[in-house]
Amino acid sequence: MHKLMLALAATVAFAGSALADPVRISVGSYNLNNLPFPVAQGLGLYEKEGLEVTVENFASGGSKTLQALVAGSTDIAVGFYDHTIQMQSQRKAVVAFVQLARNSGLVLARGKNSTFDPARPETIKGARVGITSPGSSSDFFVRYYLQRNGLSGDDVSLIGVGSGSAAVAALEQGKVDLLVNYDPAATFIEAKGVGKILIDGRSDDGAKAIYGGIYPTSVLYATQSFIEDNPETIQKVTNATVKALEWMNSHSAEEIVDKLPKEFIAGDRDTYIKAVENAKAIFSKDGHINEQDIKTPLAVLKSFNEKVAAAEIDLTKTYTNEFVGKVPNVAAN
């Protein structure tokens, strides 16, 4: 009888696995803008929706994730909204369907030997500026800052250094003079005495000073064809992710860190908790994409990206709130 029960249990487990909806999700980095995704993992929300998620972390910025999505080697990307605009200018339909981070979260910090002074923008000339990767939103941040101040990308050296501890190490070791990055790197820089934050886009006021408006960043996006062919999968992913956002909004930074997969946590735990606390203001509460805020990334890209500037961009085709609008109103446990 005992053997029969074990056999039945194994059969049920196998059947459950066979019935799970497989989906490949890639993430550009484990910076805190993307935090709701691993929180949803840690809470087991994707499994509760009947999903079998395969995750790939490129750990080098969103541009690599975008390439994987367009190439068809992943189904859904955790990346930045501005990539959907880039893709439309290249006649590729990539659509954001859940917003994770409603604001930039980027900071610009200088190392101990840097002479850059934001009050004198020209002092950035000749600087080695660390970004997550070429073509990433940190890259856009620098180029927009230069353009707004009558400078160009040729006035600095842009160097891809990744995010988190690797990015902080690049600044600490003098491999770069300035660093444009997100939390947890932003908090680590000051906690370790590695450098000083000069421009801070984590607050709404900071983002408005940098970009002229709120700058939505991390979203879940997929190709239009995948969304059309797999609406049930997209809805399940949306349900789980929005529930994670709701859960984050009602829990402390320490409780959030407790739910994270171990590989997501960088540095010492106390400093990481502080980084999460510093970043909480940027997270969406409900996953909705704001049609006014997305005009800011378009304006930024048009200022220096020739393909975007030359294209007729239809923002209504870069996002949808259809799936967020169908999420059951049930909070995560």
CATH architecture of the largest domain: 3-Layer(aba) Sandwich
The assigned structural class equals alpha/beta
Number of domains: 2
CATH topology annotation of the largest domain? D-Maltodextrin-Binding Protein, domain 2
- Uncertain ranges: 1-17
Any idea what the CATH superfamily of the largest domain is called?
Answer: Periplasmic binding protein-like II
CATH class of the largest domain: Alpha Beta
Q: How many β-strand runs?
A: 10
| Measured distance between first and last alpha carbons | 36 Å
Helix content: 40-55%
Shape: globular
Oligomer: single chain
- Give me the strand/helix succession: HEHHEHEHEEEHEHEHEHEHHHHHH
Largest sheet: 5 strands, mixed
Number of helices: 15
Query: What is the CA-atom radius of gyration, in angstroms?
Result: 20 Å
Strand content: 15-25%
Spatial order of the strands in the main sheet?
2-1-3-10-4
Arithmetic mean pLDDT: 89
Pfam families: NMT1_2 (PF13379)
Keywords: Signal
Protein name: Solute-binding protein family 3/N-terminal domain-containing protein
Family: Belongs to the bacterial solute-binding protein SsuA/TauA family.
Overview of the structural elements:
With 333 residues, the protein is of the alpha/beta class. It has 2 domains: 2-103 and 215-326, D-Maltodextrin-Binding Protein, domain 2; 107-200, D-Maltodextrin-Binding Protein, domain 2 (3-Layer(aba) Sandwich), CATH 3.40.190.10. It has 15 helices and 10 strands. The protein has helices spanning 2-19, 36-42, 45-48, 62-71, 82-89, 137-148, 164-172, 185-191, 204-211, 224-229, 231-249, 253-258, 269-279, 295-304, 306-310; strands spanning 21-27, 51-57, 76-80, 94-99, 107-111, 128-131, 157-160, 178-181, 195-200, 218-223. The strands form 2 sheets. Strands 2-1-3-10-4 form a 5-stranded mixed sheet, with helices on both faces. Strands 7-6-8-5-9 form a 5-stranded mixed sheet, with helices on both faces. α7 (164-172) packs across α8. Residues 1-20 form the signal peptide. Residues 24-268 form the Solute-binding protein family 3/N-terminal domain. Its main location: periplasm.
